[in-house]
Design a protein that fits this description.
Elements lengths: L8 E2 L1 E6 L13 E6 L13 H4 L9 E2 L2 H10 L4 E4 L8 H13 L3 E6 L5 H8 L4 E5 L5 H7 L5 H13 L3 E8 L7 H14 L6 E5 L14 H14 L4 E4 L9 E2 L6 E6 L2 E5 L1 E2 L2 E2 L22 E3 L6 H4 L12 E2 L20 H20 L17 E11 L2 E14 H14 L16 E12 L17 E6 L2 E5 L2 H6 L3 H11 L13 E13 L2 H4 L12 H20 L14 E2 L1 E7 L5 E7 L5 E2 H17 L12 E15 L13 E7 L2 E6 L5 H12 L8 E9 L4 E5 L23 H12 L23
Parallel strand pairs: 3-5, 5-6, 6-7, 7-8, 8-9, 9-10
Antiparallel strand pairs: 1-4, 2-3, 2-16, 11-12, 12-13, 14-15, 17-19, 18-19, 18-20, 20-23, 21-22, 21-23, 24-27, 25-26, 25-28, 28-31, 29-30, 29-31, 30-32
Helix pairs in contact: 2-3, 7-8, 10-11, 15-16
Length: 789
C-alpha cells in the first residue's frame, strides 16, 4: 500500500498577491492563500525553495491542516483563490486534489504552480479541479534538464500542449533565465517558436531573474539586459503577453493591448496601478484581453500576510477570533503603507485591569508562537477590550536591551484582539531580520506592546517637517513611491536621536536616501502609541523551561558521519556517491560542520552557518563532502588513502541570542548541550566543549572569529548535536599567500613609473594642504587614474 506522507502537513501558509505566482491574467489584484508541503520530483540545482523541496522531515516543521480547514481560511481571509506552491503539488497530488474539491464547494478557485513534470495517465485527475496553473518551463534544452534539473524536457512540453488542447485551465509559463545555462537567444527563440505552434500566442510568458541559491552559486544574478533581450525577442516572434519578473521594471511587467498597444493593467512589484480594462476588454479599442478577469480588479497590493492555519480548524473556530477578512487590511512594518482611514486621535482608553489583560494575552501569544503550539488564552475578551478599535499594534521582544524581534500590523481600523494576535504571532515566529527564537530564551525576554493611534499626515514642506516631530511622543512612517518604513516612538529615545536624526533613520528603514523626509513627494506621518511593557510572567510561561531536545540521535549522527566518509572515498575513486542516508533524519538546520581526520591526527573542516532561513542537512553535508574530496584528490595529505580517513559531524539548531561581545548575557546557556557562536560582519566562529565554562567558551569564540567591533559582534548559542566530544569552527577569511609585491600594471600611464618621480608628484599635489584637519587612518587607497585629481 502506498501512502502520501505529506498529506495534511504544510511547511507554511501565507496570503500573497496572485501576481506573485506569477499569474498576471488570472483574477488580477486579488489575494491568494498559498501553501506547500515538502519534496519534489526534480532535482534542480538552482532551486529557490530548497529548504522545503529538499526536506525529509515534513512533520517536524509543518503545520497540520485538513482540506476543509484550508478552504475555510481562504473564505475568512477574503482570498479568491488557493495556490498549491512552494514545492510542486504533483508530488502531493492527493492532498491538492482534496483541497481543490473543498475549495470548489466554497466558491474558491485553485491554482497549481508546477514544473509540469507529470505522467500522461495522471494529468486528467490532477488538473480536473484546477482553475489555473503556472508551468515552469525551465529551459528548452534536454541537456539543461538532464544536468541541472535531473529530468527531461519532453514531458513538460507534453503537459503544456495537453493543457491547451484538452482542458479549460488558464495557464501561464515561466522561464527562469540563468546566465551561462539557458540564456542563449537562439534557445529562447526556439522556445518561443514552440510555444506559438503548440499553445498559441495568447499564453502569457514570464522571463524571471535568477538569484544564486542552493547548489548553483557560481553564476551571477541575471542581468536586466538579458531579461529585456528575451522580452523583445518573444514579442518580435509574436507572443502577445510577455513579462519580466524578480526585478523592478513596471514598463515590462505591465499588460498592454495587443491591438492598439494601450496600457490596460499597470503593474509594479506585484501591485497594480492604473487599470483600463472593462469586462475583459481594452477600454480604448474594445479588443479582448486573454485571461480570466472579474468585473473589477482586486486591491490586495503587494502585501504578504503569514497565516497560522490552526486558527481556522473546526476545533478552534469557536475559541479563537478569526484573522482579518477583506477590507480589514493588515500591513507589515517593512514597506509600511500609509494609513488613510484615521480613527480618533484619542488613545485607546484602557482600565488598569484591561491593560493587564492585554499584556498578559500578548505574552501568552508570544509563548505559544515560540513553542509552536496553539495559544490557550486566559482571557480572550481582554477584560472587555477585545473589540476596541485601534489603528495598529506592534509587539517587541528584547533581551537586556538587545532587540530580539519586532513585528506589527497597521492599516484600516481593526479590533484590538485581532491586531494583537497578528503582531504577537509574527513577532514570535517571523521577524526575518533575526534568527528564530528559542524557547530557552523565554524567561529572559522583555515584551513591549505598542497600540497605535493618532496618525497625522504632515502637511509642511521640506525641512519644516522636523519641527512637527516630538521625540519621545511620536513614531514615524514614511512612504515614497514603492518604498515605506516605520519606527516606533521608543526608538529615538533608546538611541538618543533628535528629531532630524529620527527622520533620517526612518528614511533608511524604508530604503530611501536619508534626506527623503524633506521631499514633498514623500508622505510622512506621525503617530502615537500606548505602550505596555514588562517581563513574561510565570503564568504565561506555564511549564518549566527544559533543555532543547536533540533533533538527531547518536546513532543518526554516527550514520551521517559514516555516510560522509563513504562518499569521500567514492568521489576520490570516481564512483557514484549516495546523496541521502535513507531512514536517517533530515531537516532544515542552522549550522552543519564536517570534520575529516587523517590517521596522523591532521584535520580538514568545512562548515555552513545560516541562522535564517537555514540549510538542508543532508544536501549540505553532501556539498561539504565534495569540498573535502576535492582537497583529498589534490593530494593535500600525500600517502593517505581515502579509506583511512575518519569523519565527524556537528549539527546546530534552536538559536538563542546572548547579546553582543561587548555586552554578553550568558544566563541560561548550558555548555553541555549548546555551542556558542560569535558573528561579526560576515565572519563567525562556533565552539562546543562541555568541559569548559561559558566565559571560557566565549573567549575562545571571540578569538577564533577575529572580532573587529565588540559592540556589533553578536553572541548566540545553538543546540549542538554532534558525533564528537568537542569542536571548534572558524569561518574567517584568511590571507592568501602571493608574491611579496605586485608589479605595477600601468606605471608610466597615469603616474610616473619611477618611485622618486611619483613621490615628487604626490608631494606637489599635497603642497599647501591644511594640516589642521588630519585624521588617523591605517591606509588610504586612491584609484591610479584619479591620483592627480
Amino acid at each position: 500500500r502506498m501512502v502520501l506522507a505529506t498529506y495534511g502537513a504544510s511547511t507554511g501558509f501565507c496570503v500573497d498577491p496572485i501576481e506573485k505566482k506569477p499569474l498576471n491574467h488570472f483574477l488580477p489584484g486579488t489575494a491568494v492563500l498559498s501553501f506547500g508541503t515538502a519534496g519534489c520530483n526534480l532535482g534542480c540545482q538552482f532551486c529557490q525553495n530548497w529548504d522545503m523541496s529538499k526536506s525529509r522531515e515534513v512533520r517536524r516543521g509543518s503545520e497540520v491542516a485538513e482540506p476543509e480547514t484550508i478552504a475555510e481560511a481562504a473564505v475568512q481571509l477574503g482570498c479568491d483563490s488557493v495556490a498549491f506552491t512552494y514545492n510542486d503539488p504533483v508530488v502531493w497530488a492527493e492532498y491538492a486534489i482534496d483541497t481543490a474539491r473543498a475549495c470548489r464547494r466554497r466558491g474558491i478557485k485553485t491554482v497549481a504552480v508546477t514544473a509540469g513534470y507529470i505522467a500522461p495517465a495522471a494529468r486528467a485527475a490532477f488538473f480536473e479541479l484546477m482553475d489555473a496553473a503556472n508551468v515552469d518551463l525551465k529551459a528548452f534544452s534536454e541537456d539543461f534538464y538532464a544536468h541541472l534539473a535531473y529530468g527531461h524536457l519532453q514531458p513538460v512540453l507534453d503537459t503544456l500542449a495537453w493543457l491547451k488542447s484538452d482542458t479549460d485551465v488558464w495557464f501561464e509559463i515561466t522561464n527562469l533565465i540563468i546566465p551561462g545555462a539557458n540564456d542563449a537567444l537562439d534557445e529562447i527563440g526556439r522556445m518561443c517558436d514552440w510555444i506559438l505552434e503548440h499553445v498559441g500566442d495568447e499564453v502569457p510568458l514570464h522571463f524571471t531573474a535568477f538569484h544564486p541559491d542552493f547548489r548553483l552559486r557560481d553564476r551571477p544574478a541575471t542581468p536586466i539586459e538579458t531579461l529585456l533581450a528575451a522580452h523583445e525577442l518573444a514579442r518580435s516572434r509574436g507572443i502577445k503577453y510577455v513579462y519580466v519578473g524578480n526585478v523592478v521594471d513596471p514598463v515590462h511587467d505591465s499588460t498592454y493591448c495587443p491591438s492598439c498597444s494601450a496600457l490596460v493593467i499597470e503593474r509594479s512589484c506585484h501591485e497594480l496601478g492604473a487599470v483600463a480594462l472593462r469586462g475583459g476588454c481594452c477600454h480604448r479599442c474594445q479588443a479582448e484581453i486573454a485571461g480570466r478577469f472579474q468585473q473589477r480588479v482586486g486591491s490586495w497590493g503587494r502585501r504578504r500576510l503569514p497565516v497560522r492555519i490552526a486558527a481556522y480548524a473546526p476545533s478552534a473556530a469557536r475559541a479563537a477570533t478569526p484573522e482579518p477578512a477583506r477590507g480589514n487590511a493588515m500591513e507589515e512594518s517593512k514597506g509600511a503603507v500609509p494609513v488613510t482611514n484615521r480613527v480618533d486621535a484619542v488613545p485607546p482608553l484602557l482600565s488598569e485591569e484591561q491593560r493587564s489583560a492585554v499584556f498578559r494575552v500578548a505574552c501568552e501569544l508570544v509563548v505559544a508562537g515560540i513553542r509552536n503550539r496553539p495559544p490557550a488564552l486566559t482571557d480572550p475578551t481582554l477584560s472587555g477590550a477585545a473589540d476596541l478599535s485601534i489603528m495598529g499594534a506592534f509587539v517587541t521582544l528584547k533581551r537586556r536591551g538587545h532587540l530580539r524581534a519586532c513585528c506589527g500590523t497597521l492599516g484600516q481600523p481593526m479590533k484590538l484582539l485581532d491586531a494583537l494576535r497578528n503582531a504577537a504571532h509574527r513577532t514570535a515566529t517571523d521577524d526575518q531580520r533575526l534568527p528564530p527564537i528559542s524557547a530557552t530564551e523565554l524567561p529572559h525576554l522583555q515584551v513591549d506592546v505598542s497600540l497605535l493611534h493618532g496618525f497625522r499626515t504632515l502637511t509642511q514642506c521640506g525641512s519644516d517637517r522636523a519641527a512637527e516631530v516630538v521625540v519621545g511622543r511620536h513614531g514615524l512612517t514614511i512612504h515614497r513611491g514603492q518604498s515605506g518604513g516605520l519606527l516606533l516612538p521608543s526608538v529615538p529615545v533608546e538611541h538618543g536621536w533628535d528629531a532630524e536624526s529620527f527622520l533620517r533613520h526612518v528614511c533608511r528603514k524604508a530604503g530611501l536616501p536619508s534626506t527623503a523626509w524633506q521631499d514633498d513627494a514623500a508622505r510622512l506621518q506621525t503617530f502615537e502609541a500606548v505602550v505596555l511593557e514588562g517581563q513574561i510572567g510565570r503564568e504565561a510561561l506555564g511549564e518549566e523551561i527544559r533543555a532543547t531536545v536533540p533533533r538527531f540521535t547518536a546513532d543518526e549522527l554516527r550514520r551521517l558521519a559514516e555516510h560522509c566518509q563513504r562518499n569521500v572515498v567514492a568521489l576520490c575513486r570516481g564512483a557514484t556517491p549516495n546523496y541521502y542516508v535513507s531512514g536517517c533524519g533530515d531537516a532544515t538546520v542552522q549550522g552543519v560542520a564536517l570534520t575529516i581526520e587523517s590517521p596522523s591526527g591532521d584535520a580538514m573542516q568545512y562548515a555552513r552557518l545560516s541562522m535564517r532561513p537555514g540549510v538542508p542537512l543532508q544536501a549540505t553535508l553532501y556539498q561539504l563532502t565534495e569540498l573535502v574530496a576535492a582537497r583529498v584528490r589534490a593530494r593535500e595529505w600525500p600517502g593517505v588513502a581515502p579509506d583511512q580517513l575518519r569523519a565527524s559531524v556537528a549539527v546546530l539548531h534552536d538559536s538563542a541570542l546572548h547579546g553582543t561581545v561587548a555586552d554578553p548575557d550568558l544566563s541560561g546557556f548550558d555548555p553541555s548541550r549548546r555551542a556558542l557562536v560569535v558573528t561579526d560582519r560576515g565572519r563567525n566562529a562556533w565552539v562546543y566543549d562541555p568541559a569548559k565554562s561559558a566565559s571560557a567558551l566565549l573567549d575562545d569564540a571571540v578569538r577564533a572569529a577575529l572580532v573587529l567591533d565588540p559592540q556589533v559582534a553578536g553572541v548566540f548559542s545553538l543546540a549542538a548535536d554532534t558525533s564528537c566530544r568537542s569542536f571548534s569552527v572558524s569561518n574567517v577569511p584568511r590571507a592568501e599567500p602571493g608574491p611579496s609585491a605586485r608589479p605595477p600594471a600601468v606605471a608610466g600611464v597615469f603616474y610616473p613609473d619611477r618611485a622618486e618621480a611619483l613621490r615628487e608628484m604626490t608631494d606637489g599635489l599635497l603642497a599647501g594642504a591644511d594640516d589642521g584637519g588630519r585624521d588617523a587612518w591605517p591606509a588610504v587607497m586612491v584609484p591610479h587614474a584619479g591620483l592627480r585629481f
